[in-house]
Amino acid sequence: MGAVSRLTGLSPHVLRSWERRYRAVQPLRTPGGTRRYTEADVSRLRLLSAGVGNGHPISALAPLSDAAIAALLDTHGADAVSPLEEPLAAIASLDAREVERLLSFQLLARGPRGFARDFALPLFTEIGARWESGRLSIAAEHLATFVTGNLLAGALRTLPPPRSALRLLFGTPAGERHEFGALVAALIAAAAGADAIYLGPDLPADEFARAAALRDARAVALGVVALDPAEAARYLRALRNHLDPRTALWIGGAAAPRIARLPDGVSIAASLDDLEARVYELRARGASDPPTAG
């Protein structure tokens, strides 16, 4: 409840009142009676808070669906406060401890998968936009990357043991230092039940191939963001030649679509949803089935 109070701006007293009197949300309970809120609960509470702030009584809002509340807010030209604003302010002021505190709350409330998909990626999209427009310093961007990367890496380490023998390797090619997307992808794959091994950025092709053989990986997934497309294509050809033909090679990231001609046996995971679907597909085939190179 404390984390949700911090995320929504609603006091624990209000949260309890809305739950008890209006059944606005119905959080899960542990055997000991502690409340456990879902991502959907937090989103709904933000909508309700915005509606009340616009003058609508909670008694009128609570029976409505989330879509109906959102439509009501849109009609009145209002919306819930973005959860990114406070962390962005702390990032801009280079307040590392405050950034870590705010992001840790988000990770606690959303869980690793929700934090990676629904908070960290939108946060860094906004950070990139502000950096390009000159509203955010390079130092602030580096601080945010360091703090968020540490949280994501810690979340990856603390996930439950993989639910299958499906082993995937993640990282970035030699020359590519932007590792954030690859780390998020590893976390998403791990949350989907894979044994996701993150090898970090800037790894030579022969080292990736050696690691894939050593760990009997079903796929290698690379993030490409700032790497020159021609250089990326050369790297992918080299890695494809070094890998077992049965090992899939996937790429993703902002630079992936700019590679004019992908080498045979390399495919683009166009989104995190696409990556997640690939993981589930491989899991459905069974770990004993031979991998494919597509």
Main beta-sheet strand count, sense and barrel state: 5 strands, parallel
Strands, total number: 7
Element string (H = helix, E = strand):
HHEEHHHHHHEHEHEHEEH
Low-confidence stretches: 287-293
> What share of residues is helical?
55-70%
The class by helix and strand makeup works out as alpha/beta
Report the C-alpha radius of gyration, rounded: 22 Å
Ends apart, CA distance between termini: 45 Å
The dominant shape is globular
Average pLDDT taken over every residue? 87
Task: Describe the fold and architecture.
The structure is a single chain. By secondary structure, this protein is of the alpha/beta class. 55% of the residues lie in helices and 9% in strands. The chain is built from 12 helices and 7 strands. The protein has a 5-stranded parallel beta sheet, sandwiched between helices. Strands 1-2 form a two-stranded antiparallel sheet. The chain is globular, with a radius of gyration of 22 Å.
